[in-house]
Write a structure and sequence with these properties.
globular; alpha/beta; binds S-adenosylmethionine; Rossmann fold; 7 helices
């Protein structure tokens, strides 16, 4: 199914409005998905990039075995993340920077792992963002995504198709299918799908892991 386009400016405006209430509204409901992604990232370890780090709700899910860099489009969301960093509780968070995930300012192969929690379905051009994630992750490194993905069949799919039009101005894309992520990976000869699994609560989120293969010289 075709997805309606999302404009980056719509997303930026939406998150300026979300920032003051984001932790209260989206903290608990997305907690298990966020934790599952961070746990998967910790098994890779090292330098981790959080794309769309938001207010830094995931900072609690990492530890000193990792070094976290966060980027986000939204200055109001990053203000909240910086306030968390200022508490001194997250020495593993090296920096957060305002940056568009479609055009990252990092050199190729900078990170051991790139994580995007509840982000890939919101960006204007998901394939371009995936390619940027792939570029900045080291060969042998991983891209870990967690999101609600389109149910594809049954009542849930019908509701998601209906909600697609209603929620676009809120910066949401509930009808985003796994097939689009898979097609991106299949079009990259050095990307491989490592894992696709449902996570709590009730399997409404999907965790997807791609690896940038280390090609033999
Ligand atoms: C649903 S929030 C998720 C925040 C955080 N990852 C979490 O789990 O709480 C989506 C975040 O992605 C950010 N975002 C959306 N489009 C972006 C882009 N093109 N570049 C960087 N960040 C983006 C938004 O500003 C927002 O903070």
């Amino acid at each position: 199914m075709a997805t309606l386009d999302l404009d980056t400016s719509v997303v930026e405006n939406a998150y300026a409005r979300w920032a003051p209430i984001y932790d209260a509204v989206c903290g608990p409901v997305m907690l298990k998905g966020r934790r599952a992604a961070a746990a998967a990232a910790r098994t890779v370890g090292g330098k981790i990039l959080e794309v769309g780090v938001g207010t830094g709700l995931s900072f609690d899910d990492y530890d000193a075995s990792t070094e976290i860099t966060g980027i986000d489009l939204s200055a109001p969301m990053l203000d909240k993340a910086r306030a968390k960093m200022a508490s001194g509780r997250y020495p593993w968070v090296a920096s957060v920077q305002q940056m568009d995930a479609h055009a990252m300012e990092f050199a190729d192969a900078t990170f051991d792992c790139v994580v995007a929690q509840f982000v890939i379905t919101l960006v204007e051009n998901p394939e371009q963002v995936l390619s940027e994630c792939h570029r900045v992750v080291k060969p042998g490194g991983r891209i870990i995504l967690v999101n609600h993905l389109y149910s594809e069949t049954g009542l849930a799919a019908a509701v998601e198709r209906w909600a697609a039009v209603k929620t676009r101005a809120m910066g949401l894309r509930p009808e985003f299918p796994f097939a689009r992520l898979q097609a991106w990976s299949q079009s990259n000869s050095d990307s491989i799908l490592v894992e696709r699994r449902k996570v709590a609560p009730f399997g409404i989120y999907t965790l997807v892991t791609f690896e940038r293969m280390a090609l033999a010289a």
